[in-house]
Amino acid sequence: MQHTAVADIETEMERLRQQLAARERELHVHRERLRRQLELAANVHRSLLPKPIHHERIFLDLRYLPIEQVGGDYCQVKFSDRETLYLTISDVTGHGIGPALLATRVSSEVRYGILYGRPPRDIIRSLNTFICDHFSEAGLYLSFLAAQIDLARRRITWSGAGHPAVLLIHRGGTSVQRLRSQNMLVGVQRDIMSDEPEHSAQLATGDRLLFYTDGLTETADSEGRQLGLDGLAEIAAEAMSVELFDMADLVLRRVAEYQHEPTDDDMTLIVAEIR
What does CATH list as the number for 49-274? Predict the structure, then answer.
């Protein structure tokens, strides 16, 4: 009887080992499938990023640093005609596939406003309506900024929805102008527009513009103090000493030097110079 009991226990243990091995194989297949899906999502997300621009009237460069394979940051740079450049940048709340998919959808929706040459305030108003109509139950919100640069007149018109201020660094780094958002976050309610939803500013040859997401300004030092807008503006002014296509790397290097703990947010940085 004792021998039979031992045999039964061994048989049960073998059955459990086989079940465990089968479960591990299933988990491996699931992890591999998820890895491929994330890789595909990351490739799609990266394909939306603009390329550097060497134009007779403007130079532009970009850096994108997600903390995961896919993130909620998005940006788009497109000419509506030879002398008009649109730049849009957004930060969806959260990380992972959901925010990345929404960022992709935002890119598609915004493109129509650019193609038709709509003013920045109308692009934001239309985007907010779209998000409220289709994603109100998702609990995802986004900061967003749309800028239209008239290269012939050297003039920028912008409208922001809860997005960090664009930094306009005047030639030589002598002063930094903050082009602040005027409206509430996209998706928080049906009407997010302020009484003055859009503004314009004059540009000059040699001026530079910084567009970014708050992963930069929320970087904290060893005492928990965030870099903030003033800290980034100081770094940007100092970085005017290098060529435009070296500027983004220098700014990010200075931000990394300030940073104490690993970042928990994506970072997107666009730098442009008026020619």
Answer: 3.60.40.10
